[in-house]
Amino acid sequence: MNTQKKQVPIAVLGGGVIGLAIAFELAKRKHKVTVIEKGLCGGQATGAAAGMLAPYSEIGEDPDDFFSMCHESLLLYPEWQADVKEVSELDFEYNTSGSLHAVFHEADELALETRLQWQKGWQVQSEIVKGQALRHLEPHLTDDVIAAMYYPGEHHVYSPDYVVALKEACLRLGVGIIENAGAVSFADIRQDGVAIATEQQGNIDADTCIVATGAWTSEYEEALQIRLPIYPIRGQICAFEQGMEEVKHMVFSSQGYVLSKRNGSIVCGASEDVAGFDTSVTDKGINRLLKWSHKLFPFTEIMEPFHKWAGLRPATQDGYPLIGRLGHCPSIIVSSGHYRNGILLSPRNARLVADIYENKPAGLDMNLFNPVRFS
Fold first, then answer.
1. Structural domain tally of the chain?
2. Three-class DSSP category at 150
3. CATH at 108
4. Does residue 90 lie within any of the structural domains?
5. Which of 112, 192, 204, 271 is least surrounded by CB atoms within 10 angstroms?
6. pLDDT tens across 129-153, in order?
7. How confident is the model at residue 244 (pLDDT cuts 50, 70, 90)?
8. β-pairing, 250-253 with 184-190?
9. Which residues pair with 185 in a beta bridge?
10. Which range marks the domain in which residue 110 is found?
């Protein structure tokens, strides 16, 4: 074990997309940051994510402050991803294909009409497409789909390459990254700083600690003296090798999604279940994905997945992330529990946390995200 003790202004616990994005934003603002990751950066939910930037397809209810945050983050993505690419000098897929939210029944079509109306208030570009217009957009979609909401503004990224570029961008801006730290704990928490103990990489003293440890955040409940009800939800995904047929958009249904990546794969997800921290793939989960991919795109019936994987999504008790500085421990800022929206929220969340660190207005009603709301 490394017994060296380091002193840093800001320590970010967690090297997933949320932690790295926060570090990148803070470094752009000329702050000194160190990221501490117990394993390898992007090795958990981030690397397993399909990378969809699709708040309009995935949030069907009336808008709230969480929808507002997702909406704003999507609008930030063109500039954000360009910045990451410029600083890192690495490329990654940022696909502006747009999306289709497909329905099979008239009752579901009425729900699309309702969604269309309230989303107009957010200047969301959308329309309901049917018949030949729908077949033109997605020629291989099953004829059983009677209509779809078309969102040309929804995009997706290739998550593994995105997190590699984000890590490299952090390094080039002078962010310290400590990987393979093993177990990470708080040796001491003061009003003006924290002492962080790592199993494999020594101890770190920080003036401020940002906790971005996703599904593992509940491990710090006792140390922080608050309830942190964040639970791992296993998401299983599979991929086919693309042949003559392709999926031109992200295609959602009530049971899952199908999309093509530029690496020649067709990705189908996501089967969700509660399995603790188990990331193994199950026949039941994959078979459910296959059933729905066949229903949406009949050409996949003769295809076998060449890749199957699973990741752990950090879900909170009420579905909203925990974001904010702790009043009783002002040296601690929490940013965890983004569930299936970590990739999407990475730019807006990063700016939000950086503003919190700098004691600037959040530009968002933070009551919904109060990290001590369960205490």
1. 2
2. strand
3. 3.30.9.10
4. no
5. 192
6. 999 999 999 999 999 999 999 999 9
7. confident
8. unpaired
9. 197
10. 96-152+231-316
